[in-house]
Amino acid sequence: MRWKGIILLAVIIGIVVVLSLLLTDIWLERQFESLGSAIVGAKVEIDDLDFSLFGLHMRWDSLQVTNPKNTMKNIITSGRTDFDLDLLPLLKKKFIVENIQMTNVTSGTDRSTDGKIDKKVKKEEAKPNILTKTIDRLQADIADAPAWQLDDFTKKVNVDSILKFLHITSPAKLDSLQNDLKTTYNQWDSTFAAVGWEQDFRYLESRVTAIKPAELRTLDGLQSAYTTLNQINDKVDSLEAFVTETRQGLASDLGATTAKVGMVDDWIKSDFQNALEQAKLPAINKENIARFIFGDKVISQATQILGMVNTVRSYSEKFKSDKPKKEKPPRFKGQTIYFTRQRSLPTLWIKNIELSGHTTRGLQIGGQLKHIVSNQKLINEPTNLDIHGQRSDGANISFLGEFNYLESPMENFALTLGKMPLDNLKLSSSPLLPNAIEKGTGDLEIKLDIGSESLAGGLEFIAGNINFDFGETPSEKPLDKTVRKILSSKSTLDLNVSLKSDNDNTVLGLDSNLDDLFANELKKIIGEEIQQARAKIEAEVDKQVTRRKKEFHTFVTAKTAALEAEMTKYENMLNEQKAQVEEKKKELEARIEEEKQKAKDSIQDEAKKRLKGLFD
Amino acid sequence: MVVLKILSKLFKALRSNESPNQLAWGFVLGMIIGLTPLWNLHNLVVIVLILIFKVNAAMAGVAFILFDIIVFAFLPLLDPLFHSLGYWLLVDVEWLRPLWVFISTTPVLAWCNFNNTVVLGSFVVALLLVVPLYFFTKWWVVQYRDKIDARIQKWKIVQILKSTKLVQLYNKISQLGD
Predict the structure, then answer these.
(1) A231 and A82 share a domain?
(2) Which of A493, A444, A443, A486 is nearest to A466 (CA)?
(3) pLDDT tens digits, residue range A514-545?
(4) 3-state secondary structure (DSSP) of residue A86
(5) Are residues A421 and A283 in the same domain?
(6) Is A336 at the interface with chain B, CB within 8 A?
(7) Number of structural domains, chain A?
């Protein structure tokens, strides 16, 4: 034992205690801010955190959580917050809080500074789930759908600029196909050049012609010629088999060629469709109008909510798994594996948060968040959220939520807003709904049920007694006038949104009472222009492709005809040869019969002569 | 200055009457702090051991600096090694699970962060190095005292350097550690 060392240790411990009393608050504040910012993806700021080591009491005067989608706004802010940590679990590195009192909670407040974090938060590559799949599909929907670009067309359909960027693929495909076909045709040209049928037929013809039955006087000579002719016939038969086989091969190749040529029209159609998509020319119909107006906002809100739920879900999985997937943590930071024992306390458990505050529209709200816990299985309770609020004029809010990770993950939310004043509220950034509501009230009901394999949600918004603010000097453009006419004629607005998603599909349905009116009026104004644009694009595609298509067809027709003619020539030669052999055969058979008859007659005459002498 | 002071103390210790055991234990304990992530409870325990037992603190300081340099010089190699070893022990070796559960749920022990792959991996590597490094250091101290020190003192370069102003200054600085 070294006494000097023990004294030094005591001094160090003393310094550490004093420093911790002085610096723990700042250190904890920074730790919480850094952890919160990493989770949210934008600045989380805590002011005046005070931690009492002896009572394990913590409080802060204000909390600001930046909205990661709009870093000049806060998702949530709170005033003074107080809570106590339990000592015994803390020794086991478990943070158990009985109750947090959070006052003056508000949301959507403006920030005085940008809450963007400079350092990019490295997102973990999580396994895709129903939430990430739905988010991806909804975002792809925004990116791909021509409907979202309507505001471009309210100005002027600039076809010329669209045409500059058209990417027509048919000519290149035609070139490639023509090269393929050229190879096939060349193979056939080589085949016909190599077979030497013409020489064969000429040689056989000369041999057949050389047989002259009329000049053959003896039966032996005729018999020998007949044998030769049979040999020639066999040769013709084998040539016939070869020609037939070649014909079948050619027919098959030309058939395949025809099928390929048939694809050309599909390519051209596809080019036209792609050109329309590139031009983002919308189809103006009832179904698309609600998307034009509300799609952007609804999808943006939906993806934000689903993203937050996914963050909560991924953290719950992290704490729950005893056999977590091996991660790639930052250098020398390592991966923390959470071990739990049956009936032991979870690593983090905030049993209750009491909230009180107000909304930006002046509703006094209060509520509870129960069981924010690292592993729900250990306490056998889901996390619950219950917030209610109202205002003296009858406006009210209710938000119920449950995050249930006891078995497979499930989240359920229900938000109801009643008699909400809509004064100065802008419902959409679409050019079809450019004006804020001057006066009116609205009822909103949102339900969202998320499971492990599917999710379903619905939104119903009914606004009544609404007047739109058209400004001091309303625009006199035809579209703006039409929008004004439609909106002035309506004192109510109904919007229904449905969202269904599973592992294979996501279906977003939007429907409002403005759809029909807008569809009809819009068709009158910009429908004609869009039709003209479509025609111009079609003409351009046609111009670029038609000449090439004609050249291609000429080439194919000429080559096919040439090959067919060549094949037919050989088939004709074969038929001629067969006929010639047949004819010569008949001639020889006739001559043989004739010579046989002559021989028979001669034998008969000789026999008669001999018999005659015998009986004389 | 701190490095010079530690080096001065180290050479002084090497040439002093302190036993090779004390020097070797100092080196080994310093190695544990240097090889594992610093801000962890086990390192506090190691520091306490250095302070209360008669082990050579200068040797511990040298080992801490040396192994810290090694870790950061070979971080791309050592970090995945520690992470993989820690992950294997924590997740794949089933029979060790009760131990990790015990450590993770026992007061104070839970704060050692042994459920972190790099902390556990580096700590296990450090433990594996304790015995060989202890005996090697002990042997090296004996060798140094018997052979190397005398030889070094005879080097011409040392003789020349000893007479330079720089070394005189160094010697003066070295006195600061006395």
Answers:
(1) no
(2) A493
(3) 887 777 777 776 666 677 777 777 787 787 78
(4) coil
(5) yes
(6) yes
(7) 2
